[in-house]
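Figure caption, in words: inputs first, then the predicted bound structure.
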Amino acid sequence: MPVRATKRGDARTPLSGEYDVIVCGASFAGLAVARELSGSGARVLLLDRYEIGEKQTSACAAPTEFLENLGVAGAIRQTFSDLVIHRRQAHGGRETMKTYRWHLPWTFSTFDYREICALLKEQSPDVPFETAKVEGRTGETIRTDRGDLTAPLIVDGLGWPRYLSESGQRVTPPNARVSRGLEVHPDGSDSDLELWLDPKYVRAGYSWNFPAGDELRVGVGSFDPHDHVKRPTQELAADLGLPAERWQGNWIPHKMRKPTDGIVFFVGDSAGHCFPTTAEGIRPALYFGLACGRELRKVVEGRQTRAQALDRYAAFCDEHLYAFRWLLRVQNMVGRLNRYPAMDTALDIMDRQSFVTWSFNHYLNITPPDYVLDGPHGDRFRTPLAAPVAVAA
Ligand SMILES: Cc1cc2nc3c(=O)[nH]c(=O)nc-3n(C[C@H](O)[C@H](O)[C@H](O)COP(=O)(O)OP(=O)(O)OC[C@H]3O[C@@H](n4cnc5c(N)ncnc54)[C@H](O)[C@@H]3O)c2cc1C
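Bound structure (flavin-adenine dinucleotide present):
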């Protein structure tokens, strides 16, 4: 679990300077941008209020192939080829639990946050990192608690709040298009990646147990930000016979936002790059981070202007709007049906291998793993997992 490592007191020396690119936020989105700029010769600075990998923000599950192509498979803790879904059904006043096991056409892996961040950062050794709290922006100047920094190219990878927006687009939950998620990380092991579509825990949303080697990540997500998730998370942990300890949670955007605003590039949660329905935000944060980094690289190498990069990045994000809107429709439907028998019928209809294969392949290809290999580093970092895949007993 995270141990606070952020510099304090005297170690927090003043910071100033001019850069070509300032990447604010050193989690999935920011680290992906930095990776694509590495080797360009540009003066890039990466900032975060915490040390890299210090503060885990998710259950850390993503499609294995994406992680392999990115060269971070070394952080994987466990890999799953099936998704197990538990559904509480009420018929004739009697409640039963029905379990579906869907065999996926590709695998999902859980990983260690600190390790994946370290592996990603190793791919941009020429990009300096500083711990500083970003407090705002005026034009090309970023204000931090350690001083002001300037750059013509600025990336906001600071997560859902959209700190660096200039046109009043800051996100203010619960009155915003966000979901909320909370989880506990007790010690333990399990062999299945499990979801619960059980209104006992959450009215509009779902619950999960993601095993990661010797740790379980057990939590509840609500599509409605007004619904609290602490009590249901405690309840789910208790039902699984687990202690509710080592908490982490956050708001999760479920609507794509403008990917640029003024001169700022927004990437990951700050741009709403998190899939509705599944709340899978890591893969899109990495994917759009790579896209943004590639556009910025062309600017620092003199191959396009900042205005062209802003336009091209925005157009690239917009190409994915259709899929995000579809997933939002599915999320709204699940939210509405979850308490009713219609959800049982929907799951029964989906419970066919042909449907599972078709739908999950479509889902993967919204942000396809091959995209990783198209960039300036090609397949240089690729680390395929050794077969057979290890799972906990
Ligand atoms: C409980 C929960 C479980 C989840 N599980 C999964 C999952 O299993 N798989 C999945 O794909 N997605 C999951 N998600 C969603 C996923 O965590 C996010 O979509 C993803 O982390 C977005 O990455 P990001 O880099 O855009 O932002 P973040 O990971 O939120 O990173 C933002 C970075 O900015 C830094 N920062 C913030 N403010 C400042 C500031 N003012 N100054 C300096 N630095 C700052 C932070 O320290 C952080 O490093 C989950 C979310 C939650 C809440």
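The mean pLDDT is 94.
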